[in-house]
Amino acid sequence: MAPRPTRIQPASSQHATAGQGLKNRLMVALLSSSSLLAGTAVLAQSTETTTLETITVSGGDETPVGPDATIVAKTSRTASKTSTPLVDTPASVSVVTEKELEERGVTTLDEALSYTPGVVTDVYGSDNRYDHYMIRGFYSTGLSTFRDGLPLRVSNFTGSRMEPYGLQRLEVLKGANSTLFGLSQPGGIVNAVSKRPLDYKFGEIYTTFGEDHLETGADIGGPIDAEGLWSYRLTGKWQDARQGIDFSQDDRIYIAPALTFSPSADTDFTILSSYNKRNGSTSHGIPYGSGIDSETYLAEPDYDNMDTEEWNIGYEFRHDFGNGLEFRQNARYTHLELLYEGVYAGGSGVEAGRSALGIDGTADRFGIDNQLQYDASFGAFDSTMLLGVSYDHEDVREVRLDGYLDGIDINNPVYVGRDAITFYPAAVTDSTQKTASAYLQEQLTLNDQWILTLGGRYDHVDTVSEGTYGDNAATDAAFTSRAGLTYKATDEVSLFANYAESFQPMDANRSLLVGEAKPQKGTQYEVGAKYQPAGMDALFSVALFDLTQTNVAQYTPDYSAQYQIGEINVRGLELEGKVAMTNRINLTAAYSYWDAEIKDDTTPVNVGKRPQLVPAHMASLWGDYTIPGNGRFGDVTLGLGARFVGEVFADYANTIELPSRIVFDAALNYQVSENVALAVNATNLFDKEYVSSVDTYSNTAYYGDRRAVKATLRYTW
């Protein structure tokens, strides 16, 4: 890793002093809790003499947060913030269970979502900086990622990637949903559910090998005391790897201690903490149409870092007062530090012009969500009422350096080093956003057949930005609503319809905005059906939607100004099926169609065109089959998947069309013994080369990830 640039340090020294002290305290807390949990577990195990029976998790044990025994989830909390079966929910929800994450050997959030309808991943190819994805035609990375129901945002450049090994399931709630989650993109949200303590003993250790890839991890937990009042979980991972391109890196350290105290069936309190350190690289592209090898490195090896350190500490509290009244509270504090250093090449000649960018960022975020749920029955009606109050506070500081250096010969690159970069004076931006919200939801069921869902939410947002290029302060407020109706035609089939809204204020830094800032708002109309066959572990769904966002913000091609360009509409169809049959066959199938159109734009020529990077057709299919073991030979599972993304336009004027692509993945798992398994996973099996996006300002093309093959040896108990 290259040293931190001395040019950045003076501008951020005062802010870093406070952050360093906080960082040290958080690190001590994490390490102390990890040691305490591990030590307590060892002590408990050393004094335990009773032989425990094997515990099997079945579908009937499923909770709204997992863990799930198969790839098919039946319930979700994300869709309503209550424990509601998916077939009763008047919205489109896709769940990626821990079982599916394991079977496909997922290592990034992009990979986890790549077989989900209504979601496009690999938006910017092999860009390893953030978790890039698009939901229902709207780019959703910055504002629509949640963890355990609380926002986990990217503010300008200051953000990090999520570690899938720390997750128990992923839930995608599609469509506008600010009534539940406040500030968000209209396409939908991704809510990641953290691994948490379980009421039985378990554990695993694993090691993964690949080309320029080595990682190892462990996940252990269970009850601490004989009464089962206390339980723990400790998840950790270490990785030393690089991406497919020279001089790149993808190194990780992840530690996540968790502790649950359950004094009774009515009360539980869970502490969830994590340390997530990643040393990565910035995005790399080549001049579009140059014809050179897509893995040609045109940056500077000693000025290429995307390093983040993230500390999270939070809790979940639940108490059932009886008589249908339950209170829940979730809270989390996050401290994040970013070092971003990158050189970018572009142009159309043999010698590519180059620019440099450096960011020293810090973020402190706090979020809390209080929920009071009341369940009652009267006559033929069952009622679930939810009252919520939430608060989010975010402070972000970024010190930015822009620079330039000599061009580079794209056919024979020679690197000159970081000392050859000439930087302009640093620009400092401090921003604060405070959001206070209140929401109310009613789920009213008639004769176990009709389910009416009504909701409303009020958000009040104060945003302040102070910096080198000016100060900005704004207050935004909005009331958003939601209405849904589910009709259960039979116990297996349900029909649903919904109307929902979204609300998204402009970013804190509005220095480039032309005109008065207006909140971006979304509205959605949706109808659909779900089928959950009796006696079969499966779920099928279909949905039609019409989604519109107004006051859309967009930069000019040279990034010199920002306009709220008007209106974008996406109408679409989604199909999804997940089947787990006889413990031997798993199938996941998805198809999406998006009819996307720019309805209003400050650039008239763009009206009627398709929005940037939004495909019309997407499809995916994954299947795996288990061959039962015989004698001393264990089970063998073979898996194969295909992902199709239709052609897209790289610009809003629709002048650069990128071709469609189909990429194959595969998996092989051999159960060596009851406790030992060997897995081989391959992504982009046939090494497909394709362009994911083109930066039209710099004429830079960004390619998708090439083939990666990894082998994992895992021991479980």
SSE layout:
Layout: H1 9-47, E1 75-76, E2 84-85, E3 92-97, H2 98-103, H3 109-113, E4 119-121, E5 133-135, E6 138-139, E7 145-147, E8 150-151, E9 167-174, H4 178-181, E10 188-194, E11 202-210, E12 213-223, E13 230-241, E14 250-264, E15 267-280, E16 286-287, E17 305-322, E18 325-346, E19 351-378, E20 381-409, E21 422-423, E22 427-446, E23 450-467, E24 470-488, E25 493-504, E26 520-531, E27 537-555, E28 562-581, E29 585-600, E30 617-627, E31 636-645, E32 648-649, E33 657-658, E34 661-671, E35 676-683, E36 691-695, E37 700-703, E38 708-716
Parallel strand pairs: 7-10
Antiparallel strand pairs: 1-2, 3-9, 4-5, 5-6, 7-8, 9-10, 11-12, 11-38, 12-13, 13-14, 14-15, 15-17, 16-37, 17-18, 18-19, 19-20, 20-21, 20-22, 22-23, 23-24, 24-25, 25-26, 26-27, 27-28, 28-29, 29-30, 30-31, 31-34, 32-33, 34-35, 35-38, 36-37
* Helical stretch tally: 4
Mean pLDDT comes to 89
CATH class category label: Mainly Beta
User: Uncertain segments of ≥5 residues (pLDDT<50)?
Assistant: 1-60
**Could you please say which CATH topology applies here?**
Maltoporin, Chain A
Using the alpha-carbon principal axes, give the shape.
globular
Secondary structure: number of strands:
38
Please tell me how large the radius of gyration is: 25 Å
End-to-end gap: 37 Å
CATH superfamily: TonB-dependent receptor, beta-barrel domain
Computed structural class: mainly beta
Please give the CATH architecture: Beta Barrel
Level of helix content? under 10%
Fraction of residues in β-strands:
over 45%
Most strands sheet: 22 strands, antiparallel, barrel
Count of domain modules:
1
